C-alpha cells in the first residue's frame, strides 16, 4: 500500500492479492476456518483519497472503474457483476467508523473510492480498501496508533485485512488469516489474472469446502521462493477452495482448461474465486497470455507483478 500526500489530501493505492497456497485445515467452533495461506500483493490497485472535513461525519463517494462497469455502460444488461455497496455497509465506511469510535475522534473525513479490483473475486479488494482506510485515517487524524493496534482493529472487520497493513508484498497468514509472518521476496513475480463475469461469495465457498490436514505443505513454495527458483515454487501452488468453487461456478472449470493451454508455469484460482491466475516466467510471457485470454473473450484480464 502506498500513501502519498497531495495538498491536504492523502492518496492511497490499495493493492489486490493472490493466494499462492491456501490450506483449509479445519472448521473452528467460532464458525471460521483454520487456514494457512501464502498471500502476495499485486500491483493492480483501487485508489482511495482522504481529505479532512469540517463535518463530524464520514462522507463517502464511489467510482466504479472496473471493466464490468465499463462494459455495462457500452453494452446491454447481460453483465453479471457483484454489487459493491455505496453506503455505510461499504468496508471503507465501516473501517472509518470503527477507527473513529476506537480513538474517540470528533472530526470526519471525505473519502473517494475509485474501484478497479473486481469484487467477489478472491482478490480481497474490499479488505485492501479497509486496510488503506485504517492506515490513511490514522495519519490524517494524527492518531499515532501502532501497527499492532491497527491490525487488531482490522481483524474485527475481516481476516484478510491485517495482511495489507503489514507493508510486505508476501506473507504467510495463519489462524483465520489474521496472524501474519512476512516473507522476503528475492525478485518480482509476474502474473496474468482473469476474472469471469460471475463472482462467488466467500462464505458460500467455505461452506462447501472440505477441510483437510493432508494438503501440500507450504515449505517447498517458501524455500524455492527464497532460492529464487520460481519454476519449482510455481509447481507448489495449491488452493483448497478450488474444488468447491468449481462445483459452484462452471466458468472456473473453463478457465482451468484454457490456462492449461497457455504458456504459464502454473495456474490456479485465487482465494475463494472466481479470479484465476497464471504464474508467468516474465512480463512478456504474461502479456502474451493476457492477449490470448482477451482474444478468447472469456473474462476480464490484466497483467500484474508482485507488490513492492
Ligand atoms: P476475499 O478474497 O477477501 O474473499 P473477495 O475478492 O472475494 O475477497 P471483495 O471484493 O473483497 O471479495 O468483497 C466481497 C464483498 O464485500 C463484495 O461482494 C461486496 O458486497 C462487499 N464489499 C464491501 N465493501 C467493499 C469494497 N470496498 N470493495 C469491494 N467489496 C466490498
UniProtKB/TrEMBL annotation:
Family the UniProt entry places it in: Belongs to the GHMP kinase family. IspE subfamily.
A Pfam match: GHMP_kinases_N
Segments forming domain GHMP kinase N-terminal: 90-168
Family matches, as InterPro entries: GHMP_kinase_C_dom (IPR013750), GHMP_kinase_C_sf (IPR036554), GHMP_kinase_N_dom (IPR006204), IspE (IPR004424), Ribosomal_Su5_D2-typ_SF (IPR020568), Ribsml_uS5_D2-typ_fold_subgr (IPR014721)
Active site: 17, 160
Organism: Planctopirus ephydatiae
Catalytic activity annotation: 4-CDP-2-C-methyl-D-erythritol + ATP = 4-CDP-2-C-methyl-D-erythritol 2-phosphate + ADP + H(+)
Pathway membership: Isoprenoid biosynthesis; isopentenyl diphosphate biosynthesis via DXP pathway; isopentenyl diphosphate from 1-deoxy-D-xylulose 5-phosphate: step 3/6
GHMP kinase C-terminal domain segment(s): 222-294
Protein name in the entry: 4-diphosphocytidyl-2-C-methyl-D-erythritol kinase
SUPFAM superfamilies (UniProt xref): GHMP Kinase, C-terminal domain, Ribosomal protein S5 domain 2-like
